[in-house]
Design goal:
- By secondary structure, the protein is mainly alpha-helical.
- The protein is extended and about 40 Å long.
- About 0% of the residues are buried.
Length: about 50
Amino acid sequence: MKCLKKLRKRWQGWRFAQQNPVVAERRSYITQALKLGVENPVMRKRRRNP
């Protein structure tokens, strides 16, 4: 079951990249930045908890 879940996720990601290459590329940059340890790759201001 776990294998099917992973395959489905990979398939959906591949289809998304085929249909929206620009958005998919942007997303991959964000995931790469997060892996490298960039704290805020999108450059949005942090929200403070009240």
